[in-house]
Design a protein that fits this description.
By secondary structure, the protein is mainly alpha-helical. The chain is built from 6 helices and 3 strands.
Length: 154
């Protein structure tokens, strides 16, 4: 595109943001169209996967920082996962008002089963389009964006 090299930082950032969102939406549509989500929904899987990354129980507030759900929506989803026996709750021994969440054995098995199939889909959709070097660069850039939050002017 002519003149792209003279774009301002604001324009570059917004163009990059738009490209990121467009790529996310396109890949997410393709991933969600698969038959991987009959056992658990994508949102449920997100919670199971996020819990699986911790070595032990995690506070609901901490879990909420890592999933794309509001606190009330996450609470309702966790209630459903508890009812299905995939997630368990226990009182926080340090703060009696807090609740710790963790995967049950069934939840861990479900996460691994669905996650294995999901990983194959992601490899086909993303890994087939980018070189190994591009995948490493994409990961590094995303990690950098996710690192420390930046205050945005109100």
């Amino acid at each position: 595109m002519p003149g792209r090299e003279t774009r301002s930082t604001t324009r570059l950032a917004n163009d990059a943001w738009e490209s990121l969102l467009t790529a996310h939406a396109a890949v997410l549509k393709q991933v969600s169209a698969g038959d991987r989500w009959s056992e658990v929904s994508m949102r449920e899987y997100d919670v199971l996967y996020t819990l699986a990354k911790w070595d032990g129980p995690v506070r609901a507030r901490e879990l909420n920082k890592h999933v794309l759900l509001s606190q009330p929506a996450l609470s309702r989803l966790v209630d459903r996962l508890v009812d299905r026996g995939l997630v368990a709750r226990e009182p926080d021994p340090v703060d009696g008002r807090g609740v710790l969440l963790f995967l049950t054995d069934d939840g861990r098995a479900t996460q691994r089963r669905v996650g294995g199939r999901h990983a194959v889909d992601v490899a086909a959709l993303v890994g087939s389009r980018l070189t190994a070097r591009e995948l490493q660069t994409l990961e590094a850039l995303c990690d950098k964006l996710a690192a420390d939050p930046v205050e945005v002017a109100g």
